[in-house]
Amino acid sequence: MSSRFYLLLPLTSALVYAIAVLFLKLAMSRGASSWAITYLSNIAMGLSFAPMLFFGDGFWHISGVPWAIAAGALFFLGQVGTFRSLHTGDVSIATPALATKVVFVALLSLALPAKNPDPDLWIAVVLTMVGVILLHQGPRHHTSRPWVTLGWALFAALSFASADLLVQQVAARTGMALFLPLMFGTVALISLPLLVPHLARLGAARAGAWRWGSAGIILLAAQSAGVVGSIGWSGDAIAVNVVYSSRGLWSLVLVALVAHHLGVAEGTRDPRTLVARLAGGVLILLAVLLVVL
């Protein structure tokens, strides 16, 4: 495609993602269970991709089924890591750290046949490490556990990267119209029985918690469909993911502007902390650009 207007969709999805995680953090700060939010979000994603089975164009092959299930299981682990990172610490730490997914994709791809290490890859790894350290800077509120937050976020990035690699290697040749619904259907099916023990406690959260939580869950499913749709429409997965990686910086900006007004405790109320975390987010984004470009 000569036009690059399709990149507006992942850019919009990145902003929607940042808004969604802020809403979800707000819901959790009001007592909504992070596990219930995780499982409900996964079910919403499964439902959003299900229509592709009936209305999706293109071929599909049965050999992709076990790989789609494996990709779904890895994506599920990534979702668990994402929401645990949001539950244990600041959005301004968790979301930029999730941008390390592309670096993990590059590292894991070294195991593929005929893949030689690129010096730029190791520069990106160093930038990522420095960025992660900067994200850790600043004063903490009493509920923040920055290293735990980073650990969960990096675990999520690794899980998502592994799922992406399976999609990259298998989905195109076995059929996206089957692979993606089966992948996200697996995520939903794993989540459904795990949600049941949490249903009785949904009403225990403070007033307004699930209003924010529901909005966040819907936005999260919508942005996921937007990113996948833009890749399918454009065939330009690299450019789409580069633009989508801006979600970390969007999160930092939103946290700085509105988190305090919404009652979300964040370390970025201190200007020096905000500058350090912005610098960390920029370094991680530079690492992403270095890897994919």
Gist of the model:
This protein has 293 residues and is mainly alpha-helical. The chain is 77% helix and 0% strand. The chain has one domain (5-292).
Mean pLDDT: 79
- Outline, from the CA principal axes? globular
- Using only C-alpha atoms, the radius of gyration works out to 18 Å
In the predicted model, the low-confidence regions spanning at least 5 consecutive residues are: none
The amount of helix comes to over 70%
SS-based class: mainly alpha
How many individual β-strands?
0
Biggest sheet features: none
Structure annotation, total helices: 13
Number of domains: 1
- N-to-C series of helices and strands: HHHHHHHHHHHHH
Top keywords for this entry?
mainly alpha, 77% helix, globular
Written description of the protein model:
The chain has 293 residues and is mostly helical. It has one domain. Helices cover 77% and strands 0% of the residues. It is built from 13 helices and no strands. It has helices at residues 8-29, 34-49, 52-55, 65-88, 91-98, 101-109, 119-135, 146-174, 176-199, 209-234, 237-244, 247-262, 271-292. The longest helix is centred in the middle third of the chain and has 29 residues, at 146-174. It is globular, with a radius of gyration of 18 Å.
Ordered list of secondary-structure elements with their pairings:
Layout: H1 8-29, H2 34-49, H3 52-55, H4 65-88, H5 91-98, H6 101-109, H7 119-135, H8 146-174, H9 176-199, H10 209-234, H11 237-244, H12 247-262, H13 271-292
